[in-house]
Design brief:
Blueprint: H1 3-34, E1 37-38, E2 40-42, E3 67-70, E4 78-85, E5 93-101, E6 107-108, E7 123-124, E8 143-153, H2 165-172, E9 176-187
Parallel strand pairs: 1-9
Antiparallel strand pairs: 2-3, 3-6, 4-5, 4-8, 5-7, 8-9
């Protein structure tokens, strides 16, 4: 066997091994997703897939809706809420980010104050309105969907107030132990 053919053989074996590792990692990721603990998310203000009341939008008081969740994993250390609109013309628009919510909390009342840190230690992140706190639906045209996502984490994020959704997602990586969502719709009136 020549040096060249030996080198080619080694290269092919290396490529095969890298693909095997890649496939194995992808399979593990898929298994993790299928094993993700399902959190049930509801609101007394609207049901999943229904229109949101005007009160929680730019046409109304523009206050956060009440949310409830149940069936958190037992190893939950903190909760994160992300509310966003994937139908926005410029890409997904972030309406609300709240993190480091204690796991003893099983609901959030409506009209959460737009302060950096709440009395229970929960911390507001930055929305795409460039403000902390909730910014309600205000679609430029048509009916948009608004997803209220609840993440259960096995740790606190310990990020300062004003962290972006992207920063939060990076910190959450490897710590998500449960997930649930509630989707509401809205079409601007004015």
């Amino acid at each position: 066997m020549t040096k060249r053919s030996l080198l080619i053989k080694v290269l092919l074996v290396s490529i095969f091994m890298m693909e095997t590792v890649s496939i194995s990692f992808a399979a593990q990721q898929g298994n993790m997703e299928t094993r993700m603990h399902k959190i049930i998310v509801t609101s007394p203000a609207f049901k999943d897939g229904e229109m949101m009341p005007e009160k929680y939008t730019c046409d109304g008081k523009n206050i956060s809706p009440p949310l409830e969740w149940m069936d958190l994993p037992i190893n939950t250390e903190s909760i994160v809420i992300v509310a966003d609109d994937p139908d926005a013309p410029m890409g997904t628009w972030v309406h609300w980010v709240l993190y480091d919510i204690p796991p003893s909390e099983v609901f959030i009342d409506e009209d959460v104050p737009p302060v950096g840190v709440l009395n229970n230690g929960a911390t507001h992140g930055m929305t795409d309105f460039r403000t902390m706190g909730y910014g309600g639906p205000c679609p430029p045209s048509g009916v948009h969907r608004y997803f209220f996502k609840i993440y259960a984490l096995d740790d606190f994020l310990h990020l300062p107030p004003g962290a972006t959704k992207e920063q939060i997602e990076m910190e959450m990586e490897g710590h998500i132990v449960g997930y649930g969502e509630l989707m509401g719709k809205y079409q601007k009136k004015r």
